[in-house]
Amino acid sequence: ETGVTQTPRHLVMGMTNKKSLKCEQHLGHNAMYWYKQSAKKPLELMFVYSLEERVENNSVPSRFSPECPNSSHLFLHLHTLQPEDSALYLCASSHLTGVGYTFGSGTRLTVV
Amino acid sequence: DQQVKQNSPSLSVQEGRISILNCDYTNSMFDYFLWYKKYPAEGPTFLISISSIKDKNEDGRFTVFLNKSAKHLSLHIVPSQPGDSAVYFCAASEGNNNDMRFGAGTRLTVKP
């Protein structure tokens, strides 16, 4: 365990479903991130929360909706996804002025 | 706009020999560079970093070299061990730790 916990580890959902991914950290970090990892592509930054405020949204479709209720928790709400959204979704956290990120183990999402 | 590039998707090395993983970047404002290691079914874990004021950083079997004029960095692993087999991601950030850019990764296989 790295200190960043993601649930569920695996998720299969239909295109009409609504589901949520959860991320939790108790490292005292004040920034949290959602990344998408597709095969043979760079990690794609989706959302950044700094001090619980969203500071970046990299042109992510509205079918992905993040939520950061406090500095320890981050959610990614999913609805009406497409098969091409199937990927590994990684959560990370960091200090705003620290070195590097701590990643969770990811949620492997399959949209059918 | 892929600012961090790892042009070799895979690398195979014999145990005991040197592994050299390469990374190129385009943004001259990047001033912090990191390497992450990722095993299957796990999130990336921080391996080693280097700031732009240095050209070399060593940690045990791992050494990172930075060539700012060429916008190139490399990770050397010597001697390579089978347990080093993983995907290695290069990452870079521009001062602000909130916006780290990743390469697509290089899958290293170390053969016994």
List the helices and strands and how they pair.
The complex is a heterodimer of chains A (112) and B (112).
Chain A: E1 4-7, E2 10-13, E3 18-25, E4 31-37, E5 44-50, E6 53-57, E7 64-70, E8 73-79, E9 87-94, E10 102-103, E11 107-111
Parallel strand pairs in A: 2-11
Antiparallel strand pairs in A: 1-3, 3-8, 4-5, 4-9, 5-6, 7-8, 9-10, 9-11
Chain B: E1 4-5, E2 10-14, E3 19-25, E4 32-38, E5 45-51, E6 56-59, E7 62-67, E8 72-77, E9 86-93, E10 101-102, E11 106-111
Parallel strand pairs in B: 2-11
Antiparallel strand pairs in B: 1-3, 3-8, 4-5, 4-9, 6-7, 7-8, 9-10, 9-11
Task: Considering the chains and any ligands shown, give keywords for the structure.
heterodimer, A: 112 residues, mainly beta, 7-stranded mixed beta sheet, 4-stranded antiparallel beta sheet, globular, B: 112 residues, 5-stranded antiparallel beta sheet, 11 strands
Strand content of chain B: over 45%
User: Spans of chain A of 5+ residues with little confidence (pLDDT < 50)?
Assistant: none
Individual helix count of chain A: 0
Fraction in beta strands of chain A: over 45%
Major protein interface: A-B, 30 and 24 residues
Helix content of chain B: under 10%
Instruction: Name the helicity range of chain A.
Output: under 10%
According to DSSP, the number of beta strands of chain A is 11
Low-confidence stretches of chain B: none
Radius of gyration of chain B: 13 Å
Mean pLDDT of chain B: 93
The secondary-structure class of chain A comes to mainly beta
Overall radius of gyration of chain A: 13 Å
Q: Overall 3D geometry of chain A?
A: globular
* Class based on secondary structure composition and strand pairing of chain B: mainly beta
- Overall 3D geometry of chain B? globular
For the largest beta-sheet of chain B, the strand count, sense and barrel status come to: 6 strands, mixed
Strand tally of chain B: 11
Detailed description of the structure:
The complex is a heterodimer of chains A (112) and B (112). Chain A is mainly beta and 112 residues long. Helix content of chain A is 0%, strand content 57%. Chain A has no helices and eleven strands. Chain A has strands at 4-7, 10-13, 18-25, 31-37, 44-50, 53-57, 64-70, 73-79, 87-94, 102-103, 107-111. The mean pLDDT of chain A is 90. At the A-B interface, β5, β9 and β10 of A face β4, β5 and β10 of B.
